[in-house]
Amino acid sequence: MTEARKASRRPGAGRRAGESGTREAILDAARREFGARGYDGATIRGIAAAAGVNPALVHHFYGAKEQLFAAAMRLPVVPSQVLSAVMAAERERLGDDFVNHIGEALVRGLLGIWEAPEPRSAFLGLIRSAVTSERSAAMLREFVTGTILATLMQVARPADADDRTSRYRASLVATQVIGLGFARYVLQLKPLATASTEDLVAAIGPALQRYLTGDLGPTT
Amino acid sequence: MTEARKASRRPGAGRRAGESGTREAILDAARREFGARGYDGATIRGIAAAAGVNPALVHHFYGAKEQLFAAAMRLPVVPSQVLSAVMAAERERLGDDFVNHIGEALVRGLLGIWEAPEPRSAFLGLIRSAVTSERSAAMLREFVTGTILATLMQVARPADADDRTSRYRASLVATQVIGLGFARYVLQLKPLATASTEDLVAAIGPALQRYLTGDLGPTT
DNA sequence: GTCTATATGATGATAGAC
DNA sequence: GTCTATCATCATATAGAC
User: How far is the CA of B18 from the C1' of D5 (A)?
Assistant: First the structure.
């Protein structure tokens, strides 16, 4: 059990003498457990076991379960900023043509973020918890709309960013993005879960492109 | 508490004398509770209270919790058959142009099915349970792929229906369908949850159309 | 920082009276 | 068919020793 704790210990530069790395081990284990089982399914005991520590320590460091969840879902890197950086790079690469390929860039950026274990666990933890907890649902709502509205800013003027149409477009994009994550990582739907990033970029990118910039019918 | 049981009693024709509506009341309550809270979140006690009966009766009629869940998710009407009927009607209405509007027909049919409480509760129960239970995930996989592959049959020859490309197309459709249900009913994402059926048909239909019949990139 | 021991409560399931 | 009573299990959370 103690091996897991040692394994996640990193040679930190500024860490004070006497600290053991237990805090980080618990947080990593919590992210994995919440990601795999959701808020209700994950237990303090299970998280403690995965981190190789005593259950009482979890409470000692992070207090109640809900606070631990909030801490575990709060990543050291902010996905929306990572995505913005990816978008900026794509804009550089494509030039004026960027506006017609922003949907593909979005899929590529999201799949790239989800390749790393920590952001993926956090995203799955939010999805798995949102279905039974209104608090988690609110967190997931903020996360996806925030991330996607940031993407919309890349194509629309900031002044238009919070009007009704923009929110409608963003929520449509959100349906496809959440459904992609759900089907690929939670449901593990067969031909989709094993498809390559570029296949999915080519397949789903244009759909997002249409939601972002296309004609959506008579009402809009 | 007993009012709920009386309220759901229907004047059935072939019911034997002496039977109360308790069986059906329990099943209805179970569907509502599983739909609202998922398998783990729903409790036998809560279901019994919603049905206005004693918790022991639930076990008496349906045995273990898992059997009750299976019974509650099994609807009297089969959604894929309802959807096939809707599709046939649309094909009648549109004639040769039907093949270009099958995506819109699919969205219209699904939203129509989800308007009724029982199928919607069953769908939400599967989604809410699939995130923590592998058994429920398998049920949801079967449900969506079965429903969507049935739709694909409307546009492709049965001989092509189970090859790799068809499954790939079906899984892409599944991402958008699941994401739509999740965002609209679970997350209740604002501009989307209140949008009209026809708005969503116009917005999402073409995306599904492309997944079903369009060009999906170099690999396919 | 780390642990043992425990308070407190909810759950699924069963046995058996009426 | 319907109910009361109860068991065994597992959860979060806390108090306090070392």
Answer: 28
- Tens-level pLDDT at each residue, chain A (220 residues): 444 444 444 444 444 444 678 999 999 999 999 999 999 999 999 999 999 999 999 999 999 999 999 999 999 889 889 999 999 999 999 999 999 999 999 999 999 999 999 999 999 999 999 999 999 999 999 999 999 998 888 877 766 667 889 999 999 999 999 999 999 999 999 999 999 999 999 999 999 999 999 999 888 7
Distances, alpha carbon B89 to alpha carbons B95, B108, B147, B154, B177, in Å? 10, 12, 17, 12, 21
Q: Which residues of A touch B130 (CB under 8 A)?
A: 186-187
* Nearest-neighbour CA in chain A from B167: distance (Å): 7
Nucleotides of D under 7 A from a protein CB: 1-5, 10-16
Cα Rg of chain B (Å, integer) = 20
Domains and CATH numbers, chain B: 2-73 (1.10.10.60), 79-213 (1.10.357.10)
Closest nucleotide to A43's CA, by C1' atom? Answer: D11
How many whole angstroms separate alpha carbon B179 and alpha carbon A174?
A: 8
